[in-house]
């Protein structure tokens, strides 16, 4: 079995390639930028190149994309070219080559404005059935690419699974208020309660998707750490998150104090990964309980894989204010 991975010079693409190499599994790595894990340099919109590579593989894992950090630095047409046309180019090649399955890496950002409740409303319970309201060109193009996967499964019988990943990037937060009020690992640890996932668990989900794609045909799955919250917690989460967390983890305040950390005053959404756990057999290791255990033991809660991949950034240049320009949308 051979796999084409797009985006092997990026965080997730490299992480998947590292795991495959560690397990002595064959792959082709395609990216615009060269790297140790990229075997072919080029664009996913290059039809001839894509066709030549797809003809050599059984499965595709498509992680290459323009991300949210590019919204302030790239034109909308760039997003359409990469995220929509690039995905379509890969799907057409996959259909012609009659490959066994296509795994598309999408994002929880497609939910957009749905993720933000009004001040007097409870936190939002986010499942695969939640209707998204994308708020920028990134969300729009990722949603459109998901739909392309669905019609290729429906109309051409190409098995496709969409994995909607939550945050796993190691870069600092793009919100100035977060950077000013929380240590970087403080906010990342807290996000495991509701909106973060370790890249090692993301890799595991993608490899399980390869095993399940032919059986399932088409499906969308939220890939995020297992939240300890239940729907009964949603109202209080959006008013006093610490109180809810303390009910579930009575020692969290002591452990956070040990690090000089604080809890967010409120939490606005909860990503639910139940479908991925049930249908893919996914068992994510890294959650908030794991984080607390690591703090108690004096260990780093991040996986070795995430540390090995490291911080790549999303731009060749650096910026004076934050990790990248942020548009007020």
From TrEMBL:
Show the Pfam families listed in the entry.
Epimerase
The residue ranges of the NAD-dependent epimerase/dehydratase domain are: 3-216
Coiled-coil region list: none
The UniProt entry, under InterPro entries, shows:
Epimerase_deHydtase (IPR001509), NAD(P)-bd_dom_sf (IPR036291)
- Belongs to which family? Belongs to the NAD(P)-dependent epimerase/dehydratase family.
Q: What is this protein called?
A: NAD-dependent epimerase
Q: State the organism's lineage.
A: Bacteria, Pseudomonadati, Bacteroidota, Sphingobacteriia, Sphingobacteriales
